[in-house]
Amino acid sequence: MKFSIFAFSLYFSTCAFACLSGTGPIKMQDEKIDCVMHIGSIAFKNVTVSKNFENTGSVELIGSQIQGAFSNTGHVSLDKVTISGIFENTGSVELIDSKIQADFDNTGNVYVENGFVAGDFKNTGKVKLQNVESLGDMDITGKFNARKIKSKNISITGQTEFSGQSIISGKTYVLGDLTAKETIFKDKIEVTAEIVKLYDSVLAKNIYFRKNKNDKYEQEYLYINNSTVEGNIEFESGRGNVIISNSGKVKGKIIGASVKNNS
Questions:
Q1: Which of these, 222, 257, 253, 214, lies nearest to 236 by C-alpha position?
Q2: Which of 190, 208, 204 is nearest to 254 (CA)?
Q3: Per-residue pLDDT tens over the stretch 226-253
Q4: What Å distances lie between residue 102 and 99, 117, 122, 194, CA to CA?
Q5: pTM over 0.70
Q6: Contact 159, 142 (CB under 8 A)
Q7: Radius of gyration of the chain from Cα atoms?
């Protein structure tokens, strides 16, 4: 049986804990439903879904709760939303003041502001994070820009920037150029890059430059500006250059590189 948008609205206004299943655009406000198995755009405001949410189409949720897993194909916008289960999506994501209480897995560009992810954070596509905490590991393929984030181990393939008092408690792996400002790396940084810049009070442990497999870089550069490396710095290629300035410090050994100290 097919329902019109009006029929859907009437159905859900009289039947609590029903399951939304059908096609076409849906708008809903101040309701509590059992689950979503839908094809089409969805706009919820102050809606609680007690089980899983499955959809194909754009999704806009405001002030809502998904108490199961979230699975979608299409653009997703979340504002003041809590999702208790795994978040899976193919498409762009905008997440504001929202929480994912399990893993986050997406393919597409992502913007997160004031967000929390209790599990691992995985994405293929550009990622921009501001004031975000992830209790699990991060695995990113794409350009990565992070301001004031907290994470455990992090692996990034793409140009990478950290700033705003970010804290990485585990290991950091980057394939691509890395710039860090006002960031604490509590464990090893391992990079394959031509240029790495640490400035404005970055604190790092050991830094290891892996040799590019295609011998792409004739020289590799590490700039340490008003920042401290507490351990060793090593360049596997032997073609490293370390430039230290503005009271920058390296407390360990520098291996495979020439050093220019402008402090």
A1: 257
A2: 208
A3: 999 999 999 999 999 999 999 999 999 9
A4: 9, 7, 12, 35
A5: yes
A6: no
A7: 23
